[in-house]
Design brief:
The protein has one domain: Growth Hormone, Chain: A (Up-down Bundle), CATH 1.20.1250.20. The longest helix is centred in the middle third of the chain and has 34 residues. The chain has a two-stranded antiparallel sheet. Helix 3 packs antiparallel against helix 13, helix 9 packs antiparallel against helix 15 and helix 10 crosses helix 12. It has 15 helices and 2 strands.
Length: 446
């Protein structure tokens, strides 16, 4: 009976190393998109609409990549060709997006309240997120394909570490470049050089990391995957035959999908509001300004990168504690605790006026992020182990990440109006959503 063998730490590391570069690109997008579009002239009530495109493209692209890669095999492998193509496109767009305000495009409104510069930035964002999704999904699929159930927790922990390390680097780039003396302010409607150079360097790191994974990972052939699939089916047939009651048998894929998806809905809606409104909330709370042309607003934009980096550090620290926490309690309780700590972090921002005290808030938010990166994929890929359509299912599972972000983005302007235009209150709403997510964890059947 063929089984997927155990791998060394470095082989597990190599499978996910390219994720480090992809996450730098994603972090630059997450921390700077609201800042870029506000600089280009977007109204705060419009900001959430710009955030519809990233999850919408993910919901379209990732299932397609999953279906196509399930049926692909060439000399470069099964998933690797897609991540390489995605990385090439992402690099090209990262060189264009921050220059939207520097190309001499019209600043007159063309349609839907958008100027020429904003339309260019919008299309650049669409292509950037499409390419990031093309490059990101294969890493999750490769862990599902190449790692057995025994090592899956370790593999996703490594991926989580690389994800947060990439986020840390991407978030800090504008702050570091400003510290080195690169201009952090620019003429009206133009993105500062500190942001532009961050995207340039991030693009270079992205392609180098993907090349490293491409050269150091050899995917299993279709024949080997078929043998491993047969082995898993035989093992599960024995387990099901020994089950004392039907409830002890494996949970169905649909139930697992929707129960985890319910938790994902609240979590990803919450983080959509963090990415969208942190810049405005921090500028108003700690710098006392909402003027996007002011130096204070741009300083707050840099500080968003710093607190997002603290969030990444919190995520790494909490991820290291999760294995011990799950020994003291159940997996579901550990998952719920992670989300409740994040909720506390979000809600606490309404009382913080010192920029340094935000470190505590965003460190706690990082605990929720660690739980979101680890628990859902461990639970779902274990349910799929040995399934020949792993990529298809994981592509569809990505809808539980994308759909809540789209709904949150559509409702963002309405909710912002209901809370009197206070962007910090949008972070409080994010905290409430995480509390609902924590309670929803207990609907998951392992």
């Amino acid at each position: 009976m063929a089984k997927i063998p155990n791998h060394s730490f470095w082989k597990l590391f190599n499978i996910s190393f390219g994720f480090f570069g992809v996450q730098i690109a994603y972090a630059l997008q997450s921390a700077n998109i609201s800042r870029i579009f506000a600089t280009l002239g977007a109204d705060p009530h419009q900001l959430s609409f710009f955030w519809i495109l990233p999850p919408l493209m993910g919901m379209i692209v990732q299932p397609i990549i999953g279906i196509l890669s399930d049926k692909t095999w060439c000399r470069f492998g099964r998933r690797i060709p897609y991540l390489f193509v995605g990385a090439i496109i992402a690099v090209a767009v990262m060189l264009m997006l921050p220059n939207a305000g520097s190309l001499g495009l019209t600043t007159q409104i063309i349609c839907w309240g958008l100027t020429g510069t904003m339309l260019f930035g919008l299309f650049s964002l669409m292509f950037l997120d499409t390419s990031i999704n093309i490059a990101m999904q294969p890493f999750k699929m490769m862990v599902g394909d190449m790692v057995n159930e025994e090592q899956k927790g370790v593999a996703y922990s490594i991926q989580s570490f690389l994800c947060n390390a990439g986020s840390l680097v991407g978030y800090l780039f504008p702050y570091i470049f400003t510290y080195l003396g690169i201009q952090n302010v620019a003429p009206e409607g133009v993105v500062p050089n500190s942001v532009i150079y961050s995207f340039y360097v991030g693009a270079a790191i992205l392609i180098l990391c993907v090349i490293y994974t491409t050269l150091n990972v050899k995917e299993y052939t279709p024949e080997e995957m078929l043998e491993f699939s047969k082995g898993v089916e035989e093992e599960r047939a024995v387990e099901d035959a020994q089950a004392a009651t039907p409830n002890q048998k494996h949970a169905s894929i649909p139930y697992t999908f929707f129960s985890i998806g319910l938790v994902q809905f609240f979590c990803w809606a919450a983080f959509m509001y963090m990415w969208t409104y942190s810049n405005g909330a921090i500028a108003s709370q700690c710098w006392g300004t909402t003027d996007v042309k002011s130096a204070g607003y741009q300083d707050a934009g840099n500080w968003v990168g710093v607190v997002f980096a603290v969030q990444a550090i919190g995520s790494v620290c909490w991820a290291a504690l999760i294995p011990y926490l799950t020994k003291l309690t159940t997996t579901k309780v550990a998952y719920a605790i992670s989300l409740l700590l994040g909720a506390l972090g979000f809600i606490s921002t309404m009382w913080v006026t010192d920029q340094h005290l935000l470190f505590v808030s965003y460190f706690l938010i990082g605990c929720a992020w660690a739980g979101m990166l680890a628990f859902p994929f461990i639970l779902f890929t274990n349910a799929l182990q040995g399934n020949p359509r792993m990529g298809t299912y994981l592509g569809l599972f990505n809808c539980t990440i994308c759909l809540p972000q789209i709904i949150a983005a559509l409702l963002g302007g309405v909710l912002l109006g209901l809370v009197g235009g206070s962007q910090v209150m949008m972070l409080v709403i994010a905290g409430v959503l995480l509390i609902l997510g924590a309670f929803s964890v207990f609907t998951i059947r392992k």
